[in-house]
Amino acid sequence: MNTFTDQYALVKRTREALFTYCESIPYEDYVHGLDEFSGASMHYLLTHVAYCYRYWIGVQGLQITEFKSAIHNENEIRLVFLEIDRLVERFINKYQNRYKVPLIVKIPFQDEREPRTPLYMFTHTITHEFHHKGQIVAIGRHLGHIPPVTDLRA
């Protein structure tokens, strides 16, 4: 195993706690957008995180443009993240020992292409997920659903 594989295993463990929490939330609250979060819902943020992984890891890192799973409802989130897990595994295997080699990538929502390393792309997607995990938990709490601890535990 390498450090990135080990690190991603920890990410998946915290994600599982978040999924379990989200699945306990009534559907109406799970898809309810809050103005305090620019209208985002828990479901929207999970979908957004999945699309970030697809873009940086799949499209930019692995040059994959077609994905198997669609995200239409809350039941598909776990399936999509299983696909994400496979993408990350392929990404880690492809860039093993080459994490600092810059790749020229298209920056989202811009016409520019800039160098980004696989280390950057891997780190960006993980920190992006944890940022939104915090928002998802905050939305749930705001709607009256006390979350479990979703942080890493020993």
From TrEMBL:
- This chain's protein is named DinB family protein
Task: Describe the family membership recorded for this protein in Swiss-Prot or TrEMBL.
Answer: Belongs to the DinB family.
Keywords (alphabetical) are: Metal-binding
Pfam families membership: DinB
Q: Which residues form a coiled coil?
A: none
